[in-house]
Structure formats: C-alpha cells, structure tokens
Amino acid sequence: MMPLVVSEIVRQTPSIVSIRLARPDGDVLPPWEPGAHVDVQLVTRQERQYSLCGDPADTRGYRIAVLDEPLSRGGSHYIHRHLQVGRRVYVRPPRNLFPLGQAPGYLLLAAGIGITPILAMARHLDAVGAPWRMLYLSRRAEDVAFTEELAAFGDRVRVHLSGTEGRVDLREVLGSAASGTDVYACGPQRFADALTGLREALPEGSRLHLERFEPAKREFRPNEAFTVRAARSGREVAVPAEWTMLQALRGAGVEAPGSCLRGVCGSCALPVLDGVPEHRDSLGTEGTSVVYSCVSRSLTPALTLDV
Ligand code: FES
C-alpha cells in the first residue's frame, strides 16, 4: 500500500465530501483510467473502495468522494467526522473493473454517489470528442455533487430530481439510446437492480456496464465443504461449509489478497486451473477463469487455484 496524505477536502453537498490524496513528497502517482477505484485503508485498518472522480491528467493527486451514510460500516463516519488535511492514509494503486470500452456512443447513468466514476468517464469522453450524454439522478437539488464541473458540459448532462420530478422511467431512458450505444451506470442497489432487470429494453447492439457498491441480492444453495489445491505451494486446504475460501486459505498460511470481502471490489481474484467454481460475486464473472475467493465457492469437490 502507498502512504498518501490528504491534501484537500471539499464539501460538495451536505452529505458528500471530495478528498484529494497525494504523495507526501508531491511526486507522481501510478496512472489510472476512468472507472478505476482505489482501496483506502483507514485508521481502523478497514479497507474501503472509492472510485476515482478526478482528472486522470492530474498525475499528482487522486480525488475520491465519500457519502456520509448513516448505516455505513464505519468508513464514511470516520472520513466525515475525523479525517483532516495532512492526515496519512494508505492506498492501494488503482484497479479498473469498470473500464470504458470502444463504442459508437455512450449513455452515462449516475444515481447519487454513483456520480464518482461516471464523472471521470464524462471528462474523458469529452476530452476525446466521443458522443456521450449523461443522466444524473438525485433526490434533491442540494444533493447534487460537482455542480460546477457538470455545468461545464452544458446540455450533455441532465439532472433529474426525483423529489420534485418523480421517479424516472429507466425503461424509457434505455430505450431512447441510439442503437449501439453503450450504457455505463453506477448507483445504489435499487438502481442497479432496476437496470439489471431492464436489459431487454436496451436498443440493438447496446451493452449495459454496471458498477455496484453493494452485493447483488441473490439466493444460493446451502454451503458445502470443499478442498482448494493451492498450485504454487502444492498445499491442500479444506474449506469448511461455514468458512469462506479466503478465510480458509489465509488460515492455512496461504497468502491471498482481499479487501471488501463482499464480492464487489475484485481484489481477491484468483485464477482457476481446475474444477468448477460457484460464482457468488457481483462482478459478473460467469464463464470466466477467475474466482473471487471472499464469497465464491466450488461446484466440484475440489478447486485448483493459481495461488
Ligand atoms: S475481497 Fe472484494 S471481491 Fe473479494
């Protein structure tokens, strides 16, 4: 992890602050692309994931934004009440699980704090002259963050205030996109679930790319015990029904990465060499050759992993 310092805190709305993080010596930071996030370790040693919402051309600072959530797991409470300019925080280099692909056009959808990766995407698409537009959903005008930056994009950005305008018709929004338009969306669980259920409303040739903060709600079969073969060390690790794969690997002394422990950040990805994983993450890994060990399990009695 990189030791960084808080170089600026800006109140964006009554419940959102943006925070700029820089190296203590002001040197350049590892580069990033729109959609990337960083894992931030707080004093409690808990790690939280925050999308980068600054300008990728700002090579000496990462900007994140944090919502003050009454039901937070502690991260936003600490940041809003105790974090100050000059404080040191530890940050993993950016990783991008929500990258922009090539498309003839882009529809960006943000709800609430989901504006963070979407803002970075808008800035990039605007800089390269790609056709794009954005719909930003918020309940009240005072909850809209980054207002000045968004105003600079003119009528490419539409803000919908559900408190005064009513709930937006997402089916109509998706259906109004030109065919081939790629949709990038980020927001809270209800918004993400609604979009997932509306994929069939997308125009022909369009794809929906979604970033979730919270795990998707799904039902799984009861946990069963299985074995992990750690190919690099040749160790066999038993995963009891009540343990996660990550817990079992770490408990056996196998070094395995992990951060959110909820199947949303992607940091615990391990390549599968043999066996059939039961994917329980919210990252859309069906059919891929990696497994997210913090939540996923095995459909076969054993899984061989490249760890
Ligand atoms: S630790 Fe975040 S997906 Fe597993």
Automatic annotation (TrEMBL):
The keyword Transmembrane helix does not apply. The keyword Nucleotide-binding does not apply. SUPFAM superfamilies: 2Fe-2S ferredoxin-like, Ferredoxin reductase-like, C-terminal NADP-linked domain, Riboflavin synthase domain-like. InterPro entries: 2Fe-2S_ferredoxin-like_sf, 2Fe-2S_ferredoxin-type, 2Fe2S_fd_BS, Beta-grasp_dom_sf, FAD-bd_FR_type, FNR_nucleotide-bd, MRET, Riboflavin_synthase-like_b-brl. One of its GO terms (molecular function) is metal ion binding. It comes from the Bacteria. Residues 1-101 form the FAD-binding FR-type domain. Pfam families: Fer2 (PF00111). Its cofactor is FAD. Residues 224-307 form the 2Fe-2S ferredoxin-type domain. Keywords: 2Fe-2S, Flavoprotein, Iron, Iron-sulfur, Metal-binding, Oxidoreductase. This is Oxidoreductase. It comes from Microbacterium hatanonis.
